[in-house]
Design a protein that fits this description.
With 353 residues, this protein is mostly beta strands. Helix content is 7%, strand content 35%. The chain contains three helices and 20 strands. It has helices at residues 16-29, 205-208, 214-218, and strands at residues 4-10, 38-42, 45-53, 62-70, 73-79, 82-83, 88-89, 109-113, 120-126, 134-140, 143-149, 170-178, 187-194, 224-231, 265-266, 286-287, 303-308, 319-323, 327-334, 345-351. It has an eight-stranded mixed sheet, with helices on one face. A hairpin with an 8-residue loop joins strand 12 (170-178) and strand 13. It is globular.
Length: 353
C-alpha cells in the first residue's frame, strides 16, 4: 500500500484566514475533525480550536489543540477544556491551560515562521494501510515542519489514566546529524518529539511541576523526545554509544536542544563500514516502527525512515527509490550530514509507489 498526498496552498500575498483554512481543509480530509470546535478573530490573531476525543467516558478524555495564525506564522498550545461560547480555555491555570490571551502569540509555541510575501503550503500524507494516520509537512521558502496529531480512532495505552490527566497527541519529527567532535560528526538520529504540554499532561506534567513561566510551557516541553532512532557513520567509529553521541546528557553536540534526543535505538544499516559482516551495501527503509509509547499503534508500513550515505543534498518532496516503479518513497523531512559518503543522513519517508 502507498500513501495518498494532497497539497493545500496559501499563495502570496495570503491573508491570515487563508492560512488557517489550510489546516481546516487538511484536518477534515485527514479525518481529524468535521469542523473547528471554535473559530474566532481576536484583534489580528485568528484562533482555531481542534477538539479530539480520545476517551469520552473520562474526565480528561478530550484534548483541545489551540492554534493561532498570524501574518508572521503558526503557533500552538493545548488545553484540557474549552468554552466555545466565551472563546476561552477552562479549568485551572497551568494545570489545564497556560494562559487565556487570545490576541497575542507570546504564550504559544511557534510551529513555523512565515511571511505573507511567501507562499505557504501544508502537505498531507495519509496512509493507505491505516487511514487514521496522517503526517503533515508545513513549509514556506526553505523552512519546513513535519508533524502529526493522534487521531481519535487510535488507542491510548490503558495505563494512561485519563480520569486524572490528559494526553497531548501532537508529535513532530526532528532529524539531526552530529557527533562527539567537529571532525567526527558522522552519526544521524531521527527523533519523534512531543509537546507542548501542561501540568495535567500525563506525559509532561512532571517537568512542569511548580513552573509558571511561558518558556517552559511553550518551548521546553515542546522538545521532549519520545522515541529516537540512530545510525552510525559508514566507517570505523571509535566513540562510546552512550556518550554525547546519542545521550541527552551529552555536551556541545546536542546541548543546544536539551531533551530533544533521548538515547537512540541504533538501527542496523547494511554497510560494511558500519558492520564488517556486510560486503554488499544497501539502504534499508525501516517501517512499522513505534513512534509514540503512549498509544498502541506504530507507524503504518507506508511511513518509514532510512539513513542515507551517498549524498548530503536533499529537498522535501525528493524521491527515494528502492526499486524503480515498484518501491518509491517521498522525503517528508531530513537532515543532511556534511560527511556525504561516511555520514548517516536521516530521512523520514512516505511510500508513494
Amino acid at each position: 500500500m502507498a500513501c495518498t498526498k494532497e497539497t493545500y496552498t496559501a499563495t502570496a500575498t495570503w491573508t491570515v484566514s487563508q492560512l488557517a483554512d489550510l489546516f481546516r481543509d487538511a484536518f477534515i480530509d485527514a479525518g481529524l475533525m468535521t469542523a473547528w470546535f471554535d473559530s474566532f478573530l481576536s484583534d489580528s490573531i485568528e484562533n482555531r480550536i481542534l477538539e479530539v476525543t480520545y476517551d469520552g467516558t473520562k474526565t480528561y478524555g478530550k484534548t483541545y489543540y489551540w492554534f493561532m495564525f498570524a501574518t508572521t506564522g503558526v503557533w500552538l498550545h493545548v488545553a484540557t477544556g474549552w468554552n466555545a461560547a466565551t472563546d476561552q480555555p477552562t479549568g485551572t491555570q497551568y494545570l489545564d491551560f497556560f494562559a487565556t490571551t487570545t490576541n497575542a502569540t507570546a504564550n504559544h509555541w511557534q510551529m513555523l515562521a512565515a511571511a505573507t510575501t511567501n507562499t505557504v503550503e501544508l502537505v498531507r500524507y495519509t496512509s493507505g494501510v491505516d487511514a487514521d494516520q496522517s503526517w503533515f509537512v508545513l513549509k514556506t521558502s526553505a523552512t519546513r515542519f513535519c508533524f502529526t496529531i493522534v487521531n481519535d480512532a487510535m488507542t491510548v495505552q490503558p495505563w494512561m489514566d485519563l480520569a486524572k490527566g490528559f494526553f497531548a497527541g501532537f508529535s513532530w519529527v526532528l532529524p539531526y546529524c552530529a557527533g562527539p567532535s567537529a571532525t567526527n560528526r558522522r552519526f544521524g538520529t531521527l527523533t519523534f518529539v512531543r509537546g507542548p504540554g501542561l501540568r495535567r499532561d500525563l506525559t509532561a506534567g512532571t517537568f512542569l511541576n511548580g513552573v509558571t513561566d511561558a518558556s517552559a510551557y511553550s518551548l521546553q516541553t515542546a522538545r521532549i523526545g519520545t522515541i529516537c532512532y540512530g545510525a552510525v557513520g559508514n566507517q570505523s567509529n571509535q566513540f562510546t554509544l552512550n556518550s554525547d553521541a546519542f545521550d541527552t546528557t551529552g555536551a556541545s553536540a546536542i546541548s543546544a536542544s536539551f531533551g530533544a534526543r533521548p538515547g537512540a535505538i541504533i538501527l542496523p544499516n547494511n554497510f560494511s563500514g558500519t558492520n564488517p559482516a556486510f560486503t554488499s551495501n544497501s539502504n534499508p527503509v525501516f517501517h512499522s516502527m513505534p513512534f509514540m509509547p503512549y498509544i498502541s499503534e506504530s507507524l503504518p508500513a507506508d511511513f518509514g525512515l532510512t539513513f542515507h550515505y551517498a549524498t548530503n543534498s536533499f529537498s522535501q518532496g525528493d524521491t527515494f527509490v528502492v526499486s524503480a516503479s515498484t518501491e518509491e518513497w517521498e522525503v517528508l523531512d531530513f537532515a543532511a550530514n556534511g560527511s556525504a559518503v561516511t555520514g548517516a543522513s536521516p530521512l523520514f519517508l512516505a511510500r508513494m509507489v
